[in-house]
Design goal:
50% of the residues lie in helices and 22% in strands. It is α/β, with parallel strands linked by helices. It has one domain: 3-Layer(aba) Sandwich (Rossmann fold), CATH 3.40.50.150.
């Protein structure tokens, strides 16, 4: 019976992802690959198991990457509420993001859930600068020229278990400012996961 419930959840989720992929194509929003999505889901699940409570999708588009993160934390047993913030600056994209998140919650959640998902129409950098809480996981897929701005904020914003994940680390790759920052500073350690487009993982040094 438990196996049947798990398979049903997976089937519902994957069917949903086909829908969001179609929406993203129609809106001409590039989205991460399923390969990258599986990495996001795995990392968010692990961080939640470690006690992570604050997850951020910076540059959420229509909600594709947000959906993978949400799937990762969905079944985590937590004594405290988990917060997922999906941030999209473009108002048109945000309208689809908000609608898709509400539909996904109806699809996956029971009447009550320990996961609170918030769609925000604002600039991701502004949100991070003003956040008064520590971040346990953040996925960044915004203008690549702004990656350096996020990297500079992470040493003081990440929790002890927190990680930052940056898309397109291989293709088209990080710009020179981001590369130089990572090479010269000693507050973050980093590693690139070689998916097709590449995921940069950063963590505070201990």
């Amino acid at each position: 019976m438990r196996g049947e419930l798990i398979n049903e959840l997976i089937d519902r989720f994957l069917s949903w992802m086909f829908h969001v992929e179609d929406v993203s194509r129609r809106l001409r929003i590039s989205h991460i690959s399923r390969e990258d999505g599986l990495v996001l889901a795995s990392l968010s699940y692990y961080i939640a198991l470690m006690g992570g409570r604050v997850f951020i999708d910076a540059g959420a588009g229509a909600g594709y990457s947000t959906s993978w993160i949400l799937y990762g934390v969905l079944k985590t047993i937590s004594r405290e509420k988990i917060f997922l913030y999906a941030i999209e600056r473009d108002l048109h994209r945000y309208s689809y993001l908000k609608e898709n998140i509400e539909k996904l919650k109806e699809l996956l959640f029971k009447e009550t859930s320990q996961v609170e998902v918030n769609a925000l129409n604002m600039d991701a950098i502004e949100f991070l600068e003003n956040a008064e809480f520590k971040i346990d996981m953040i996925f960044v897929d915004i203008d690549k020229r702004q990656y350096i701005d996020v990297l500079k904020l992470l040493p003081k914003k990440l929790s002890e278990i927190g990680i930052g994940i940056f898309h397109n680390a291989i293709e088209p790759g990080l710009d020179n400012r981001a590369k130089e920052f990572l090479e010269k500073q000693d507050q973050l350690i980093h590693h690139v996961i070689p998916t097709r487009l590449g995921l940069l993982i950063v963590k505070k040094t201990t």
